[in-house]
Write a structure and sequence with these properties.
mainly alpha; 11 helices; single chain
């Protein structure tokens, strides 16, 4: 029994570290936090509860990001893809609540497979007109599988904004979608008081990670951000191997 205590502390420490990494990636690239949090919390809590708690943490973290990037939030430019993402997330979250766990696992696998097939095929000439549809598909896959794959990134990048505005747009889209998912999951009983308390305890961690992420994004410049963004997109694809 005594040996279980260090193992529990180690597990909790690694879990907290993983959550912090997710917050930092999200604050730096504008998206990608679900790459870390969704699989991590799914392993720790189970598939549905893990996805629901990841949505809660990401929603809170994205609210912090809205504050951090408040001077570079392109509300008007991001309005259409935000609406598409919210509608998709609403549908996807309801599907997750109703579907058996095994079906959700298949959905996660398919979402990542699509990410792998779509990686490297981004062209703004076609992605810009399709941005609303891509955003809706991203919201649906996010609501059902916990991660949007590269679709949200493609939709946001199609706006043709600078790096700080791109992160701001991603924060707007992600915050509204995650809050929508949390509302659905809360109504279904997948998010409870204990989850809310844990999310509140994570707020200081969110603040530190977001400030560090914003500073990192400012420091690396446009070329560095483009490389970081591509790295996150590749990460979505590599989840197929996890």
């Amino acid at each position: 029994m005594a040996g279980d205590v260090p193992e529990t502390l180690l597990f909790d420490g690694l879990l907290l570290l993983g959550i912090a990494v997710g917050f930092f990636v999200s604050a730096s690239a504008g998206l990608g936090g679900s790459l870390v949090l969704a699989p991590l919390l799914t392993l720790a809590l189970g598939v549905k509860e893990g996805i629901a708690f990841a949505a809660l943490l990401l929603a809170a973290n994205n609210v912090v990001k809205l504050w951090a990037y408040r001077t570079t939030l392109p509300w008007k430019a991001a309005a259409v893809i935000t609406l598409g993402t919210v509608l998709g997330a609403l549908a996807g979250a309801h599907l997750l609540v109703a579907a058996p766990d095994a079906v959700v696992r298949v959905g996660v696998f398919v979402a990542v497979a699509v990410a792998l097939l779509g990686e490297g095929r981004v062209d703004r000439a076609w992605s810009a007109p399709l941005a609303p549809a891509l955003a809706a598909a991203a919201g649906a896959t996010s609501g059902f599988s916990g991660t949007s794959g590269p679709l949200k990134g493609i939709a946001v990048r199609s706006l043709g904004l600078g790096r700080m505005q791109t992160v701001g747009a991603a924060a707007i889209v992600s915050a509204t979608a995650d809050l929508t998912k949390v509302a659905v999951f809360g109504e279904a009983g997948l998010v409870g008081a204990a989850h809310l308390q844990l999310a509140i305890l994570c707020v200081p961690l969110m603040a530190v990670a977001t400030i560090a992420g914003r500073r990192f994004t400012w420091t690396i410049g446009e070329d560095g951000y483009a490389r970081l963004f591509r790295l996150v997109m590749v990460g979505y694809a590599l989840r197929l191997l996890v």
